[in-house]
Amino acid sequence: MKSICELARLVDGAEIIGNKEIEIAGIEHDSRKVGKGTLFVCIPGVHVDGHQFIRQAAVAGACAILTTRRDVEVPDGMTILLVPELRAALDAMVPYFYDYPARSMRIIGITGTNGKTTTSYITRAILRHAGYKVGLIGTIQIMMEEEVFPIHNTTPDVVELQHTLAIMRDRGMDYVVMEVSSHALDQDRVAGIEFDTAVFTNLTQDHLDYHKTLENYMLAKAKLFDHVSEPGVKQGKTAVVNVDDAAGKTMLAHADCAHLTYAIRQPADLRATDVHVLAGGANFTLNHDSFGTMPLQLHITGIFNVYNVMSAVGAALAEHVSPENIAAVLRTFTSVPGRFELVKAGQDFSIIVDYAHTPDGVENVLRTAREIAKKKIIAVFGCGGDRDRTKRPIMGRLAAKLADVVIATSDNPRSEDPESILDEVEAGVRETIGDKHHERIADRREAIFRAVELAEPEDLVIILGKGHENYQILKDGTIHFDDKEVACEAVAARREGKGCRHSS
Ligand SMILES: CC(=O)N[C@H]1[C@@H](OP(=O)(O)OP(=O)(O)OC[C@H]2O[C@@H](n3ccc(=O)[nH]c3=O)[C@H](O)[C@@H]2O)O[C@H](CO)[C@@H](O)[C@@H]1O[C@H](C)C(=O)N[C@@H](C)C(=O)N[C@H](CCC(=O)O)C(=O)O
Ligand SMILES: Nc1ncnc2c1ncn2[C@@H]1O[C@H](COP(=O)(O)OP(=O)(O)OP(=O)(O)O)[C@@H](O)[C@H]1O
Ligand SMILES: N[C@H](CCC[C@H](N)C(=O)O)C(=O)O
Ligand SMILES: [Mg+2]
């Protein structure tokens, strides 16, 4: 509980209209989450204006609203906390409301186009093996030790994030490992968080719909390193940076703290040498002054995962985890849901489900697939709607170049027409295809069934873009959809000589 006056004092120019004596029991910007004594934050969003939900919030128990609009109408008895700028007000008030939870735990933030989720899972495993209680916040879910909670954004907004951190603190987490998306950095969702270790994985094209240029996108990522540089209550902060990536330099330039660099191709503090990518994993040697050399046989494969391992090891070293604990986890770590995940349904060919949804992701994953494939690669992939359109033909080109059979399909079309997305994907496919086998099937289920139907013994069917997702977002709503489930159904249907429509 905090008094509304306390909250108002945090914001220059704030004014309380109505009862000044009220106590605030919670802060929410979603009317559906409001309870008794809540301060309801009215956000004019992209889709709807939060001011429309004031009455609903009042019925649900909200005692006050936070707004920038003096002319707003509220039910009798409701207090208005009027501020000049909403985001700045939230950034000041919400961490204060929860007593700055991030100050009581060590926080590891991971940014970069690809590899954040994978790095976060490996880091979590290492820290837990070292005996710490770990919270995780990222694309797939929120975790507090073994307990799992749903999540809607990779990095939640400041209201949900601070609330989550407060619960983690109250449950005694020593560490929080969190993915920090470029949207979150641009929108200050991580305000009030003092990071102990900030990790940069890589920067390649994505989200140009939002950031417009790669430069803006890079500078948004660099804000994580501005955060880690800010003076605060924490000691011993470190920036862990991939210096094989050209943007690594920019991240380091923003990081006024200790640096721990990692690379395969460049000189760096932490290096992987003698890298061999195999079907079931990758063998390499890790080199760092603190332990000399560490020979490893990973159970996850692809050069990109060697980089993800180095990000996680860099974070663990920055947090002074012993090399023995690190090695023990790397030798046993098997998978991250939906990332290069093998689907075993008794078939005589391989099926892999992967979350590659950027040009770099598609390229990395298909190159890895090529290294391990015994026969043909049949790739099923699409591009999300309401997202960076410029990546569509590029992903089409890469799939056509690196797979033997391409089946272009829908990812999450969201509000867009699936066929128009496919037109843009196909433009890239056609440029590159030569005489390769190419099909276009908008229905993702049919596309997966078709790939399975086409597969011959020892082929590799690779289904890209949706990984762990168990839904598909269509214009008319969201349906249950799970690539792994559908792939298993397709194998079963093929065995029984049935088609796609018979087994749903
Ligand atoms: C562009 C963007 O960042 N949009 C975010 C924004 O949504 P919005 O502006 O559309 O909000 P809105 O739906 O119009 O709602 C406005 C207000 O009305 C409220 N409302 C709405 C309905 C209702 O019944 N009652 C109610 O009170 C909402 O809670 C909100 O406060 O505010 C929402 C609440 O915080 C976010 O969930 C939403 O993220 C959307 C879902 C999104 O897709 N974001 C993507 C682009 C994103 O942020 N992605 C990155 C990951 C990228 C990566 O890892 O590659 C991420 O961190 O997830
Ligand atoms: N280090 C990497 N470099 C390039 N591609 C990668 C890397 N790690 C993973 N990938 C590819 O990107 C996909 C997504 O990986 P992951 O979920 O770890 O990334 P992410 O950064 O969390 O993505 P998102 O931004 O959607 O949350 C993987 O399924 C794989 O295809
Ligand atoms: N964090 C990414 C995830 C993309 C996943 C892909 N399946 C899609 O829907 O485009 C985004 O929101 O752009
Ligand atoms: Mg992620």
CATH homologous superfamily classification of the largest domain? Mur-like, catalytic domain
| Total tally of structural domains | 3
Strand content: 15-25%
- Helix coverage percent: 25-40%
Bound molecules: ligand UAG, adenosine-5'-triphosphate, 2,6-diaminopimelic acid, magnesium ion
Q: How can the largest sheet be summarized?
A: 11 strands, mixed
Radius of gyration from the CA trace? 24 Å
Discrete helix count = 16
How many strands in all? 26
What order do the strands of the largest sheet run in, or round the barrel if closed? 11-10-9-12-8-13-14-15-16-17-18
Ends apart, CA distance between termini: 50 Å
Indicate the overall shape.
globular
Q: Would you tell me which CATH topology of the largest domain applies? A: UDP-N-acetylmuramoyl-L-alanine:D-glutamate ligase
CATH architecture of the largest domain: 3-Layer(aba) Sandwich
Structural class: alpha/beta
Q: What's the CATH first level of the largest domain?
A: Alpha Beta
Which stretches are low in confidence, meaning pLDDT under 50 for 5 or more residues running? none
